[in-house]
Amino acid sequence: MATSSTKKKPVAKMLVMGIISIALYAALLTHQDEVNEMFGKGTWYAFLPILAAFLFSFVHGSFTGDFWTVVGIEAAKKKKEVK
Amino acid sequence: MHDIVNSFINLDTITILYLFGVGFVGGLVSGFIGSGGAFVLTPGMMSLGVPGLMAVASNMCHKFPKALVGAMKRFKYGQVDVKLGVILGISAEAGVLYGAQIQENIKKSFGDAGSNLYVSAAFVVILAVVGGFVLRDAWKTYKSGNAHEEEKTGKLAKWVQSINIPGTMVYFKSLNAKVSILFTIPLGFATGMLAATIAVGGFIGVPSMIYVLGAPSLMASATELVIAFVMGLGGSFKYALHGLVDIRLAMIILAGSLFGIQLGAIGTTYVKPFMIKVVMGVIMVIVLFSRALMVPVYLSQLGLIGKMSDMTVKVLKNTSFAIMIAALLIGAFIVLKSFVEGRREEKLRLASEALEHGKI
Known about the structure:
The complex is a heterodimer. By secondary structure, chain A is an all-alpha fold. Chain A is about 70% helix and about 0% strand. Chain A is built from four helices and no strands. In chain A, α2 packs antiparallel against α4. In chain B, α5 packs across α11. In chain B, strands 1-2 form a two-stranded antiparallel sheet. Chain B is built from twelve helices and two strands, in the order ααααααββαααααα. Chain B has one domain. By secondary structure, chain B is an all-alpha fold. The N and C termini of chain B lie far apart (about 75 Å).
């Protein structure tokens, strides 16, 4: 129990990634028509949804990971032996 | 391409919350058993007015980044066999292409009803056989009182591991053995074919890794995330080439599912390995009933049985969809319940260890 309380929680990182994540989603939802038109063009534009998916998963994935750590939900201390 | 652009739906707050919520529950289950959620998401999007192909494409485009995040999380817990995942993933990609081609041919020959009947029949047969087997195995483990013990390699897996075909043998850490890729290729291919047919390749992928190759449940479900990533990335690009991905839908679902997948992945560190089989088996068997309800509808549309009234069709469709949602929610409930129980046990264990330490 002592280890979890002494371990520093990534609050600042979570906040930064959370703000970037919100900004990304706000940009996506406020520019829906432009995004739909450009991402729906196909051919070389096919890279756009793929790159967007990687970008969102990096930012939002980092945020959600830190979110659960900050609220105190972490993996079991004793690592499971899965060999 | 104009008709595609015109088929982008309008997003209101309710729709966004709905997609976020389903994404979260789907992510939670995927983080735990390696797949799931897609069977609800695709029809769920279609019910909002998204054309079928676009729903499949957008679902796939949320799946691969979600699987990537989940795989990375579970890699930290030592549960992922990257080599096995990539090898199975590549052959799964081939299976996806072949499966999509079969779908296309059936659609051309028998129309939408024929294609739907094929999908539902595949659901019912595969889920009955594999789901029933997985659930029976989980039940046997539970009854035997060996739930805490390490899983034993089954007879079939032992045989597969004993076959030596020179030039094709590869060592996999999850199996702690060498297996010929002549065995892994058809398994990956079948996973991909199933993914192209019913959107959830993991229903073949995970059980085949456990029962045919001999991987522990935790590693099989974690490695499935690598397969889903490889398959989803290739599939998304293919659909994106035709402008079929609605990135707004994909990213909103991703927003919810990344919360879910992290929680599901954390959950695996607390539970007994056989719980993976329980959740997977329960979901498979419930989904099987959902799809079985639709079989008479498609048979009637094909004229193989008497015509059904519109009302009966509507009732069957709605009941089928409700059962599917129930399958996902029940799966999520079991995940959360076993997670909470596991955490409680962990806390008690740590407290008693601290107490013992204090005495010494």
